[in-house]
Please model this.
Amino acid sequence: MAPGITPGSGPGHLGLFGYDPVRFLVGRGVLESLGIEFDLRAGDVAARGNFCTVDARGLITDRRAGRISTETCVALVDRLRGIRLSGVEVLVEPVKEHRFVLVLRGPGLGGRLSETDPQALGKPPLPVRGLDEPSQPTAALVNAFVEEARRRLADSTPANMILLRGFDRLPDLPRFPEIYRMRAAAIAAYPMYRGLARVVGMDILKTGGTFADEVATLREHWAAYDFFFLHYKDTDKAGEDGDFEAKVQALERLDAFLPEIERLAPDVLVVTGDHATPSVLAGHGWQPVPVVLAGRYSGADPVTAFTERACAAGSLGILPAQHLMPLVLANALRLTKYGA
Model:
């Protein structure tokens, strides 16, 4: 992304996969839907939902409703499934913790919609607006859904309201395995990141809910693929909660798994993040993220620690995320010479 731009998880990951995140933009609703293996169809409009907490004045006091349990989310989704809208089918599915998916299915729906999440506390949820003419009737339908959801959740604590963002329809992106001519697999416990991998054509490997499970899945399928996307969530989660100590502990837990991954002897190993999540911001940031690229042909530089300050002096410099994949391919000897 450009300097000063704070990326979401979608564009952040697409950049790491080598896609220009400005050209190839995918709404979070699509990614969440694909991540839970929902049968998203052409023409459907999908949104990522959060159960949230509002006070008596309707102002948001917690955008994630205290990260309610997935079991509570399932029960609340059952309440929302009873909502009916004229001329469209309403589909609501639980995802994980406070997250759910809303899908509208019917003719003539527009996917260019604004979000209800103001991304701040002390403000009310925003009304949805159609950002082009075909999307304006769809915006009215979504606003009707939100108002009915407000009524049905009024007696629920702490999740008594919803926020919707990332509206989109199913895109047609170039396929990662075809672009790079590699068998590619994704290992991720969180559904949205499976959705990101699925939308670019990676195989999704079933795994358990812990990073230890993910590493075991990596080891089990090591010989079957050329490229693995292995996702670790705990650092981002702690950063969004503004919990610095928890983030330090999450990094230390990840460190403990690196020797096991290195024993698999990858041609190239990359460790990085899709975006910064500084604890002081309790949210995504625009700051560069550190990246380490290790391989037989990667050379050497004076960096001896994997921190933001140390990596700023590294030989890779500061580069757009979409420039990382060509470096990975080059270090794996998968690129030919350019020109004579």
